[in-house]
Amino acid sequence: MTFPFDRDDPESAIAEMASRCSNWGRWGPDDVRGTLNHLDDAKRREAAASVRRGAVFSLAQAFDMNGPQKGWRRRTNPVHTMLDTGTDAAAGTQGFPHGIGGADDVVSMPLQCSTQWDGLGHIFDHGRAWNGRPSGEVVTSDGDLVTGIETVADGFTGRAVLLDAGRALGEDGELPDGFALTEQHLTEVIAQQGVQVGRGDIVLVRTGQLTRVRRDGWGDYAGGPAPGLSFTTAEWLQRTEIAAIATDTWGFEVRPNEFHDAFQPLHQIAIPHIGLFIGEMWDLDALAADCCADGRYDCFLTAAPIPVTGAVGAPVNPIAVK
């Protein structure tokens, strides 16, 4: 497929795509749920039918110092520190009566350093946030005052569909860095797997990049080249009425981006214009292996973000049940 935009003019392409894909006002002027509006009670009831065996998969990476972050824009890996330990208890220094002791700990980390959701306050387009609101009135030094991640803490429960693009399109189950997944590619994967994607679904896209970096080392996983969705998929993301999408990569869209001088242009459409929630750095390998083995690529998913008040993104431990 020939890229249909001028690679030297991302500004015009983003404006054109925003006009085609905008959901502003679709759910009223006060909306904070974006595409999660597609995932209603009826869809959640239908999703329960995806559970047949009761097999459970955590789709989260480990939250520890052995993570992908390298300090870009002050993003670091989690730092886990003990406040009380078994050593303290054995030494009798905790000051508790009748021999009781305990352990306690603390974690310091950027909220988007590992498996996480991007909230609707994460990305703006020319100073406009989701639903056309002025970005300065949405996110301030006090956090996201309108679409903080806590407003959708109950929203990510429903039917998930895994699109294993790595197995379907790549060699040895992996797509190479820089591979741009187009709508045609996604349609091909859907057809190969014999699954349907539609309103209210949470789409999981496995590229195989996480598999590769686990084998070869993190390298530039955090921010470097990666397979991912093409800018041209924006209309598919809007038209299919999916509730959310998550990938096994750091940035969801193909990197380097398809324009000569751009940074995450698909984010600039998906979040502030479509109102789409994006999950990144999800571990889809075990689920994908199971799907390949039994030929079923849908499952029940619950993936509630930690409801940090005013956060523009949050860690999550997604649980898939088949």
Automatic annotation (TrEMBL):
<keyword id="KW-0378">Hydrolase</keyword>
<dbReference type="Pfam" id="PF04199">
    <property type="entry name" value="Cyclase"/>
</dbReference>
<dbReference type="InterPro" id="IPR037175">
    <property type="entry name" value="KFase_sf"/>
</dbReference>
<dbReference type="InterPro" id="IPR007325">
    <property type="entry name" value="KFase/CYL"/>
</dbReference>
<dbReference type="GO" id="GO:0016787">
    <property type="term" value="F:hydrolase activity"/>
</dbReference>
<protein>
    <submittedName>
        <fullName>Cyclase family protein</fullName>
        <ecNumber>3.5.-.-</ecNumber>
    </submittedName>
</protein>
